TrEMBL record:
Keywords: Isomerase, Manganese, Metal-binding. Pfam families: AP_endonuc_2. GO terms for molecular function: L-rhamnose isomerase activity; metal ion binding. Residues 72-249 form the Xylose isomerase-like TIM barrel domain. This is L-rhamnose isomerase. Gene3D superfamilies: Divalent-metal-dependent TIM barrel enzymes (3.20.20.150). It comes from the Bacteria. InterPro entries: L-rhamnose_isomerase, Rhamnose_iso-rel, Xyl_isomerase-like_sf, Xyl_isomerase-like_TIM-brl. GO terms for biological process: L-lyxose metabolic process; rhamnose catabolic process.
Length: 388
């Protein structure tokens, strides 16, 4: 039997970070659909993130994206976040939306473009300093569309060079989260396509470089829980970018496409001690809400992570180990499936009520009048969105 008090304590202690860009307008390469009440600046995005935290009690961090969230005074923005009861989380560097980056950023054949990209990454470390953030998240759109377009090995050397320069700039309490993605926007070769490449670069850099697993960035059928277990066991699982995919990088609400996969991932996290803050795993959402209302979609995503975590915590580790040791295939599988089949929603409702929260945070959001208020107040100005 699992110690239910330990399960409750772990769920109370879990922290989930939401991304500033989830509150702005987003879309596909075909269309961005604007929504009423969307934030006009990073201050309003933080207000929305704070609303998600106020209703869930477990989302006190918000990731920024630079330059989308560029402000003159980052310390002021961090103070604004604190006033709203949240903190600035990971700083996401954007080196993919400038014309100069057509052939890549840190792996561009032109040394001047590589310099420009590294300069931006170093400026993002300044943002870490100003906001007190720990993590610099690096995802590169770099790659090639055609065989022969670029030299793969040379580009790897450029990448290592850029990462080393940024790594050298980190303070002792700061980290690089290196994110990988199988393909897109490059369609032939991507410079950081998989966890192995990210892991190898992190090993070269040192202990403050860790891998970010974006759950949407794999080929269909990839065993993501294996990647999680491996990286965690080596102390290199730095973060998740949680989202969900059906076909490619769909950026849907986490757990929407495959809640069983999310459970399997969280099982490896729990089993490997990844819920312990000392393990340094940052549980972030990386999602875009193109057609659905944004704040309730974030709340739903937070709840989905909580549900998968609760089920993973309910796995009877002793019984599982005994069945595995005995070679009892069916019993071992049954231990996992029993936990997965448990309806943990009553437990989560109870935990929220114990913390003085409404048991159903989405319903509480709809009843709060916040959506009506931001629709009325946020009139005029330019809505935040991709490229804003
Ligand atoms: Mn991501």
């Amino acid at each position: 039997m699992q110690d239910i008090e330990a399960v409750r304590a772990a769920l109370r202690a879990q922290r989930i970070e939401t991304p500033s860009w989830a509150y702005g307008n987003s879309g596909t390469r075909f269309k961005v659909f604007a929504q009423e009440g969307v934030p006009r600046d990073p201050y309003e995005k933080i207000a929305d993130a704070a609303r998600v935290h106020a209703l869930t009690g477990v989302a006190p961090l918000v990731s920024l994206h630079i330059p989308w969230d560029r402000v003159d005074d980052y310390a002021h923005l961090a103070a604004h976040a604190r006033d709203y009861g949240v903190r600035i989380g990971a700083i996401n560097a954007n080196v993919f939306q400038d014309d100069a980056y057509r052939l890549g950023s840190v792996t561009n054949p032109d040394a001047r473009v590589r310099r420009k990209a590294v300069h931006h990454l170093l400026a993002c470390v300044d943002v870490l300093d100003a906001t007190g953030s720990r993590d610099l998240k690096l995802w590169f759109a770099d790659g090639t569309n055609y065989p022969g377009q670029g030299d793969i090995a040379t580009r790897q050397a450029y990448l290592a060079e850029a990462l080393a320069e940024v790594y050298a700039r980190l303070s002792a309490d700061q980290r690089i989260l290196l994110e990988y993605k199988l393909f897109e926007p490059a369609f032939y070769m991507t410079d950081v396509p998989d966890w192995g490449t990210a892991y190898a670069h992190c090993l070269e850099l040192g202990p403050q470089a860790v891998v970010c697993v974006d759950t949407g960035h794999h080929a269909p059928g990839t065993n993501i829980e294996f990647i999680v277990a491996f990286l965690l066991s080596r102390g290199r699982l730095g973060a998740f970018d949680f989202n969900s995919r059906f076909y490619a990088d769909d950026d849907l609400m986490v757990g929407a496409a495959d809640p069983f996969q999310l459970f399997r991932i969280m099982h490896e996290v729990v089993r490997g001690g990844g819920l312990d803050p000392a393990a340094g795993v940052n549980f972030m959402l990386d999602q875009c809400h193109n057609i659905e209302p944004k704040i309730p979609a974030q709340i739903r995503s937070v709840a989905n992570v909580q549900e998968a975590t609760a089920k993973a915590l309910l796995v009877d580790a002793e019984e599982l180990a005994a069945a595995q040791q005995a070679g009892d295939v069916l019993a071992a599988n049954a231990v996992l499936m029993d936990a997965y089949a448990t309806d943990v929603r009553p437990l989560l409702r109870e935990l929220r009520e114990e913390q003085g929260l409404a048991p159903d945070p989405v319903a509480a959001y709809h009843a709060s009048g916040y959506a009506e208020r931001i629709r009325a107040e946020r009139v005029g100005g330019t809505q935040a969105g991709w490229g804003a």
